[in-house]
Amino acid sequence: MFALPPLPYADDALSPAISARTLQFHHGKHHAGYLKALNALLDAEGGPTEPLEAVMARAAGDENAKLYNNAAQAWNHSLFWISMSPDGVAPGGELGEAIAASFAGFDGLRAAFVAEGAAHFGSGWLWLAVNPAGGLVVQATHDARGLPGRLNLAPLLICDLWEHAYYLDHQNDRKTFLESWFDTLANWPFAAVQLAAARGEGMAWRHPAPTDRDAGAARALAKSKRQVAA
Fold this sequence. Notes:
The chain is mainly alpha-helical. The chain has two domains: about 20-80 and about 215-230, Fe,Mn superoxide dismutase (SOD) domain (Helix Hairpins); about 95-200, minor pseudopilin epsh fold (3-Layer(bab) Sandwich). It has nine helices and three strands, in the order αααααβββαααα.
């Protein structure tokens, strides 16, 4: 089965932009709920036997909306936790140069990021990504839709636009949430690693794989259920 990844910081480390209460509900209930639903769907197939990225690609190709939505939401949330850091390190090096080239500087990126997210209608995700030509773009996607395998963009950072991500702390003021998120939580060192990977230097982030033991147990359980049903 796919396990809930632990947070890389304490529950209160992202406050005041994201409170401990929001983080506990968001990680421990919302994200965990998507993983529970995903594992149940995969158990019915005989257990998870492939990386989550492959599950998403297969579900998208088969137009299996239920599987895709739960797989993509699980993937997006896992990347979201890593896209944040309480350390507040500013972008530099190749990432800083890419930001300057694509947005005329850090302030330009901030303005584009906040404007795109604030104007997005309904639920979804906000991405900082690199396109095939090497330039950076800000892109919002609706509901569970992700970037991998869909828009030919490589993600650097992701921010959650669903209301449960910010409503306890900012009510309906998504713009203030995005400003606070960008100013205090964006994990620029992680984005720099992702950018380097997109340019062929190192490996991009991938979702933690299911453990062999758990996957084997799930397959055995599903097989026994099928035998009993027969």
